[in-house]
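Dear colleague,

As promised, here are the two records you asked about, laid out in our usual form so they can be pasted straight into your sheet.

NAME FIELD: protein one
SEQUENCE, THEN STRUCTURE:
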Amino acid sequence: METKPTHEQGKMQLEIFELRREARLRQARDWFSRNFYAENFEEAMRVAAPMTEGGTNFMMVLGYWDMACSYLNHGLMHEDLFFESNGELFGVWERLKPSIAECRERFSNPGFAANLEKAAVRYEAWLEKRAPGHAARMREFMKQMRPQQAAAKA
């Protein structure tokens, strides 16, 4: 963005950050980072089925990030300010991406996590301008994390 963030946008940035610090959401985010590895819809349902603790954690994380990204997508947040301190959205989207199409189809909700998706696509383009190759490296790192997490659970 070529404009500077407004005071209001800065305040909103702090407010969404403060929400991330809420104890139950922190717990859900920790669960998500340790457990949500799904290459397809069936795996996603095994890990985070509705009406389970995993499903609750999953929906808390997705709900938070989709809401935060909706503010960005509707122009309420300053893009540079948002992206400079919210890279987690990219990791969440990358974990969700393999199962999202079937999830949207099965639940007849083409807009499920659409704000997160739109922001993640923009984030990757934004990041590529500032740190070429970083998104690709992060994807490789995330691929390596799955076997490590499986081994830690065994």
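NAME FIELD: protein two
SEQUENCE, THEN STRUCTURE:
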Amino acid sequence: MLLAAFVAFVHFLAFFVLTTTLVLQLGLLSESISVATARRILRADRVSGIAATLVLIFGFLRVYYFEKGADYYFDNTFFLIKLALFIAAALISIYPTLCYARWSPELKQEIAPGISAPKLLRIRKIIHYELIGILGILICASLMAKGFG
């Protein structure tokens, strides 16, 4: 029982960290980004990737070992929607990560990265879509908890 509670705690904590780092990135992204801000964005992106990985790992531990069992979850429509939303958010998050990774050579030389207005808008939209996906995941989780699906 205690192990199940710990696994659930880490799952939820990672989910909250993921959400927080996305909001942080959104707040830091602007037309002019300093070297220090760019480094914060890179760190937030790395932490969000780690958090998303932990959400997935501990979520599947819960599904297979600690909750109602894989058959229950994989037969639940809202669980499948949750999983699809998570996968969609993970896939669209690749674009901002690749954009941030391209800043590394400039940052090593202490040069602030330049970002075009269209690219900035695209990254901000993607982060908004990820956050909307998180809201969808929360709605599905609430419905599952009440026996729907």
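A couple of things worth noting about protein two: The chain has a mean pLDDT of 96. The chain has seven helices and no strands.

Best,
R.
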